[in-house]
DNA sequence: CAAATTTGACCCTA
DNA sequence: TAGGGTCAAATTTG
């Protein structure tokens, strides 16, 4: 299902590019090429959906897998058009909360923990339009601290931690990886919640490059717009919020470009 | 020159 | 023990 959604979102991206081509009055050849790509993608997605439906009708699974919540492609387009909305997620694959809260992250002698260091949330986002290498801007400043080749994956996984980790011991981390089946889609896994914004509320006027909430909670807004009742921040993670804005994440793009540029997209 | 990124080595968990 | 996550020195960038 994830793969099909990826294809659909990819198609939506292409439609948007076609829209720009129209306004730029591109040549008929390039328009035709775009249309061909779009129709191929959607036909492919439709065929796959048909296969999926056949399978579903054939048998009922014991444990239904976590249901992805589709927030609609329009939402993605709005992200591209409206910078303030760039943050929102496209597909939420599910939310898993471990029994250790954010406060537990520092309780063990060795800080090197994994898999149990707070909330884990995985989202699928489309790469920014026009530049497949651009990572999703989630309005936080992240620092890359590692990259690894993952077994069975075409693309490496990049590891980021919150830029405020030093200043505020913010435990938030995220992993970004391109999907094998669709390099235009990125799987972003968030681990632990941001504690930094909690600190910056009181120091809002005295610091720079710290998360500041300039607008409404975009997540909630998208939920409202698309009646997405599942897309709710985990209640046990009161500080989990991707929506506060941070001025200037330009370097992030640079690192992303350098990260992916050596990978064959064909 | 400071800050950010890269990358090989190390560590931890399943 | 393999594979994934993190560290930290080296390198790059602004």
TrEMBL record:
One of its GO terms (molecular function) is DNA-binding transcription factor activity. GO terms for cellular component: nucleus. Transmembrane segments: none annotated. PROSITE patterns: WRKY. Residues 137-194 form the WRKY domain. Pfam families: WRKY (PF03106). Gene3D superfamilies: WRKY domain. The keyword Cytoplasm does not apply. Keywords: DNA-binding, Nucleus, Transcription, Transcription regulation. Coiled coil: none annotated. Its main location: nucleus. It is found in: Nucleus. This is WRKY domain-containing protein. The lineage of its organism: Eukaryota, Viridiplantae, Streptophyta, Embryophyta, Tracheophyta.
């Amino acid at each position: 299902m994830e793969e099909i959604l990826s294809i659909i979102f990819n198609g939506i991206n292409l439609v948007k590019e076609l829209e720009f081509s129209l306004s730029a009055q591109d040549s008929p050849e390039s328009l035709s090429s775009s249309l061909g790509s779009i129709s191929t993608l959607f036909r492919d997605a439709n065929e796959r959906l048909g296969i999926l439906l056949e399978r579903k009708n054939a048998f009922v699974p014991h444990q239904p897998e976590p249901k992805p919540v589709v927030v609609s492609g329009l939402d993605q387009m709005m992200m591209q058009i409206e910078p303030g909305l760039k943050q929102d997620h496209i597909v939420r694959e599910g939310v898993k909360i471990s029994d250790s809260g954010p406060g537990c992250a520092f309780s063990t002698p060795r800080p090197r923990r994994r898999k149990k260091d707070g909330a884990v949330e995985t989202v699928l986002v489309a790469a920014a339009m026009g530049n497949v290498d651009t990572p999703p801007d989630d309005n936080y400043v992240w620092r890359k601290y590692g990259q690894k080749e993952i077994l069975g994956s075409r693309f490496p996984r990049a590891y980021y931690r919150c830029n405020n980790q030093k200043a505020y011991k913010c435990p938030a981390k995220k992993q970004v990886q391109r999907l094998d089946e669709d390099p235009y889609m990125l799987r972003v896994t968030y681990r632990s919640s941001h504690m930094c914004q909690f600190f910056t509320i009181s120091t809002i006027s005295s610091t720079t490059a710290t998360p500041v909430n300039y607008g409404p909670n975009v997540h909630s807004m998208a939920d409202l717009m698309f009646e997405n009742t599942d897309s709710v921040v985990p209640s046990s993670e009161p500080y989990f919020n991707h929506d506060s804005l941070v001025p200037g994440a330009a370097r992030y793009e640079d690192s992303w470009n350098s990260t992916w540029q050596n990978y064959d997209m064909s």
